[in-house]
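Example (one chain per record):
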Amino acid sequence: MAVDRVLDDLDRLIGRPITVTSVKAGPRTVVVVPGPDKKKDPNLRKIRRLLGELDRTYEARPTQELLRLLDEIGEHRNQLAQPLPAVEAKLVDRWRRRLEDRKAAERSTQVAAASRNTALKAGRTAEPPQDDRLSAESIAKLAVIVRSILKDLARNGGTPLNWGDLRVRAGGQLPSLHPDDQVALLVAADRGTLADEPLLSTLVDSSVAAPHRLYRQVRLGLGRKPLPDTEIETHRAMEALRLRQIWRYRQ
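Predicted structure:
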């Protein structure tokens, strides 16, 4: 070949062989790596939409409708291909607690309302309590005792007490109560508290594990604005301080 002859001639002229390496490009393999699937699970999208609806309509919608939305979230959650993300799971748990508190407060408000109706209807025979529940009339009578105890505690700068301490201060007049009756009793005790003043129930803890449960439900039962979980402890501490200042010189 002509190329070989040229190389031979160059070898003779230079005095050493010339090596030519031929580089041939091999076939190129193109690997297509699929990117992340940006299409979200439709059930997750529905859960996020329903959580947003809960937040937007909480103040305006009845509790039963809000609980229905929460049940719908649970149905979509069961159909997810992957576990519910941590952010949404925390929101669902928070809404469940919040709605359970609101429902309990509404039941307590109904009991307190029945108590007021009983007081207005002279001569009416009190309806017997169901199981271990107190009658509305009994709650109305006990509320006077509890309010007096809490006023004295506020005047003397006392720290919050638990339900057992409250029963001791009542000198045996306060029986062991169903949790809903505890809320109803505190709602009735604070019925006379002015709207711009701290509740006397600020001075009653629920338990070591959930100290703010009663206070949160009493606020809802009296129509006061609900508080976020992250703010309720600080809020209660400030309200307890204001309560002591208000009642220090009040009879």
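Caption: Residues 122-129 have pLDDT under 50 and may be disordered.
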